[in-house]
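lol forgot to send this yesterday, sorry. struct tokens for the thing we talked abt
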């Protein structure tokens, strides 16, 4: 090595792959080059730069041959201010290592999907993408079938399926994790109204709803935070007495309201079909004209706590930008204090991903494990109160792979496979639905309930 210290001049410290005739040696900085010599003459005329990952001096593919007369014996390598000597011996290159797996994706018809894997190899390898277990070949809309990156142009429903990459080297074959490719149905229904009923407590234990709009243009929304309006459902003692509502885009406040009659949203509520609330009540409401993006609505109490309802209504749900999801964080109790999201699907059938998350909040987001809902149970009901689907411990379900893949596609955070969180993937007809999140053991804690439009 020139201009570089040898990290570990043990014997042997240079290795040759018997089949690929490649050579590498450990080094310790990025400042020099490496030359291979037998005695004084240089064996390989080229010099090679340092690679930071992994921290080896590495001859890149294709590796040059150093000739059979140099495959074993005593060798000398020039190092900074000294010469180090060691044996060259035959070494079997390891299997290729997959450093980044392909990620599930969804696209509209005519769109583009790209799947890729990050693979570290020592020596030559071949790549082969497969769909549903069958080898792919390049064609009019598909390229990269024999590389680490596969691109599907002009996506159609025929492209939906499970994809994986097979990597073959001198020492064997490895296969990536599977990735699901889905195609959005342009005739699918749309989310017209999303709501969540839950407890509003003090401090950070309020109802916080995050939602996403996707597509061009501007969307008119009615956002309501209802406390007194819940009296007829849970009683005056349990309902939030005075609701306050704030709408944010990131750290920027877009508006707030305390006492809905000041917001002048009565005509909009009537137009969107929102149920009437008492004039002059201490409920809260906002009208918002929003472009595509991510937003949060915060429903708190003005000096009190209780059960409340946070609602989102959208005008012209089929037009862009469309409401794609809502996720509400709050304290889940028992009885009237369980968390209940409401969903209204318009126009046509559509698929929904619904999740009730407690333990993952501690694993991935730093919440106190003793403060989160320990074992969420999620139940989806139709408009008549009949249960459609129930989930407890999502990773134990037969469709766990699909649940995880669709979560990737819609941008939901990943759930640990062994977590006790709950998830449902279901196709529903147009209409009204409710979900309920409660603890399997009757406990209480912080949870997030999420509803996503799914491909």
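and heres what i got for the seq, position by position
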């Amino acid at each position: 090595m020139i201009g570089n210290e040898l990290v570990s001049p043990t014997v042997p410290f240079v290795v040759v792959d018997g089949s690929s005739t490649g050579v590498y040696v450990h080094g310790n900085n990025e400042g020099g080059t490496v030359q291979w010599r037998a005695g004084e003459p240089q064996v390989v005329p080229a010099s090679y730069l340092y690679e930071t990952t992994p921290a080896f001096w590495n001859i890149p593919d294709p590796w040059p041959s150093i000739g059979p007369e140099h495959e074993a014996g005593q060798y000398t390598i020039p190092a900074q201010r000294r010469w180090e000597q060691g044996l060259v011996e035959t070494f079997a290159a390891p299997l290729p290592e997959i450093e980044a797996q392909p990620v599930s994706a969804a696209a509209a018809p005519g769109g583009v999907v790209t799947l890729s894997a990050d693979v570290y190899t020592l020596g030559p390898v071949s790549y082969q993408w497969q769909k549903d277990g069958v080898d792919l070949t390049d064609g009019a809309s598909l390229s990269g079938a024999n590389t680490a990156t596969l691109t599907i142009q002009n996506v159609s429903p025929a492209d939906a399926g499970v994809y994986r990459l097979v990597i073959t080297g001198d020492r064997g074959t490895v296969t990536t994790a599977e990735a699901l490719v889905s195609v959005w149905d342009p005739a699918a229904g749309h989310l017209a109204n999303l709501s969540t009923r839950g407890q509003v407590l003090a401090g950070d234990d309020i109802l916080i709803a995050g939602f996403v709009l996707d597509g061009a243009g501007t969307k008119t929304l009615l956002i309501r935070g209802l406390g007194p309006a819940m009296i007829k459902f849970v009683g005056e003692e349990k309902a939030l007495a005075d609701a306050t509502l704030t709408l944010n885009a990131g750290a920027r406040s877009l508006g707030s309201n305390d006492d809905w009659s000041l917001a002048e949203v009565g005509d909009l509520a009537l137009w969107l079909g929102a149920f009437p609330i008492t004039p002059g009540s201490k409920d809260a409401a906002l009208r918002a004209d929003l472009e595509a993006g991510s937003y949060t609505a915060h429903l708190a109490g003005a000096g009190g706590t209780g059960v409340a309802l946070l609602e989102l209504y959208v005008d012209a749900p089929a037009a862009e930008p469309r409401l794609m999801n809502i996720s509400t964080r709050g304290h889940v109790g028992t009885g009237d204090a369980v968390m209940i999201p409401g969903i209204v699907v318009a126009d046509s059938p559509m698929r929904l991903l619904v999740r009730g998350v407690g333990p993952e909040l501690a694993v991935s987001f730093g919440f106190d494990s003793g403060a989160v809902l320990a074992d969420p149970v999620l139940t989806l009901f139709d408009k008549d109160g009949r249960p459609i689907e129930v989930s407890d411990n999502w990773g134990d379900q037969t469709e766990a792979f699909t649940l995880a893949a669709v979560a990737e596609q819609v941008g939901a955070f990943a759930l640990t496979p062994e977590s006790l969180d709950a998830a449902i993937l279901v196709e529903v007809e147009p209409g009204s639905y409710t979900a309920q999140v409660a603890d399997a053991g009757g406990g209480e804690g912080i949870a997030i309930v999420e509803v996503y439009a799914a491909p």
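Residues 1-91 have pLDDT under 50 and may be disordered. anyway ping me if u want another try
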